[in-house]
Amino acid sequence: MKVEPNGDISEGPEAANTCTQPDSDGEETDCSDTEDSEDWREPLSQSEAQSEHMDMSCENDPDYLPTPADDSGDTSFDSMDEEPIASTSSSPEPPSKKRRKGKNSLKTVSLAELEDEPGPKSTSGTKTGTKKGARRPWRYEDIEAFQVPGSSFNPPDAIKTPFQYFKTLFTDEMIAHISQHTNFYSAQELGYPIRTSSQEIERFLSMLLFMGVFNFPAIDDYWHHESRFSVIADTMPRRRFKLLRRFIHFNDNQQCDGSPDRFYKIRPLFDMLRQQCLLIPSTYQHSVDEVMVAYKGTRAGSLRQYIANKPDKWGFKLFCRASSSGIIHDLLLYQGASTFFNITLTEQEEALGLGAKLVTTLCKTIPLPRLSVVFCDNYFTSFDLIQNLHGNLGLRCIGTVRANRMGGATLKTDKELMKEGRGAFDYRSTEGVIAVKWVDNKCVNLLSNACGIAPVSSVKRWSKEANTKIAVPCPSLIPAYNQHMGGIDLSDMLVHLYKTPVKSRRWYFPLFGYILDLCISNAWLIYKRDCSLLNIKPQPLKRFRLAKKSNTPRPSQPQPDVRYDNCGHLPLHFDKRGRCNLCPKGVSRWKCQKCNVFLCLNANQGCFTTYHQKT
């Protein structure tokens, strides 16, 4: 090798093809044919060659003195790690070789060191789980089915009245709470309380339940003389009913300033209802889903949500856990980022996504989780959720899942399965969890650790080609999911059959109406279950709801034999005026002593006389 005057390096054939290097015994070894030889070097660039030439000339010059810049190493050439020119003279040890910066080098690591090396710490359960899921050993194997024990309930001694079933959910404590805060709120607004009581609140609630079955266009129509509905009109005067509806309240506004709870106006009632729902005995199959409470106003701000595929597209969003019979056992109000403000979550649970956190929170209240199975749709299901539920609670899960949450399962593509026809399926399993893709009208993805493929059953589907229903094969987890997933949909259907009229400017009033309807729905399902245990035919939901009225109507209308007996009907004068019981717009201070009704008695109106005469 030699350096040309222009700075270029030229290598002769001898230098290019031969090199000698002492081995461990001090003998020279020919390394011309060795590709991995340490002396093999790539051609130097022009700047590197100039640097090397300068260094050689400086070493041969006896008058050369290093400058301060050279001593400090502040040159543009010091940033390069130069390789020394290979020496052909034998020496006891080979010169140490410097490695060029930026050049890749491989490090040999033993298998034992690789196994002992700790893995990366997971700070985000979802993201880390997805990366690990791509390396999971998915196998073409089925999993063992979990045998869910059958549900058994103790039969009651006797069937209670519908009012008693209702009061097990809407308790006396809740009625007293409403009465207290209604008086307090009216005193804040008017300067004096409206002096309502628990008995009056019960009558008010019974009127709302009746209005849910007999729905009139306007509230005033129940008292109007042309459309008067005596069951409601005789229970409470119209003005008193509208006064209670105006000032009914559920919490103290002055104590809620700065609270992270955005549902503070209705939260106490929901908490008391939730405690009662948790006491209801449940089956071992549970489902988690969302519920929309209809509200189209704008006063609730961002609490109002929009879901396109719901019957009520605008409204408040709740997440509920229900048994397969349709009874709601737990519920959670959704309010955005502060949904879990009063719930303690572990670091592992905090790392989960929103859907997984909701399911985990609702499933913590299941009495016997190791004997239970929970079902959820693709909004909630993920591989991390199934592992977290089984690892922390011992709870098994079956659910439809989106393709990017399957933990890296390598299944056939939708196109490949669609070519095989309806009923085709593919599956893989790992760590006790099975991922299944099944073709019905389109491909459906499921994850499960409760049951798998066997036994393969069949379902009836309509075939356009055969113009009849045909049997389509399906894995065993498909019928299990279809059978037990519809609990919340059943409850939602019962609530919408007879809805309490709650149109109001106050945004929380629809939530109060949902509480009433949910208590009726849960109470009727419990009543129906008790009737089946005692082999008694249950009442339909409408008759059950109408039986809620526990009070006797107020005696606003006298009996005909008293009204027309022409004996003892004397007018009494009162300082406070009352509405005439005969004419629709009359107001009078005169009241019949025997009939106990106000009647007009003046020169222009003779309602007092007309009222007591048969026509």
Automatic annotation (TrEMBL):
This is PiggyBac transposable element-derived protein domain-containing protein. Transmembrane segments: none annotated. Coiled coil: none annotated. Residues 24-39 have a biased composition (Acidic residues). PANTHER family: DDE_TNP_1_7 DOMAIN-CONTAINING PROTEIN, PIGGYBAC TRANSPOSABLE ELEMENT-DERIVED PROTEIN 3-LIKE. Residues 1-136 are annotated as: Disordered. It comes from Gouania willdenowi. Residues 161-524 form the PiggyBac transposable element-derived protein domain. It comes from the Eukaryota. InterPro entries: PGBD (IPR029526).
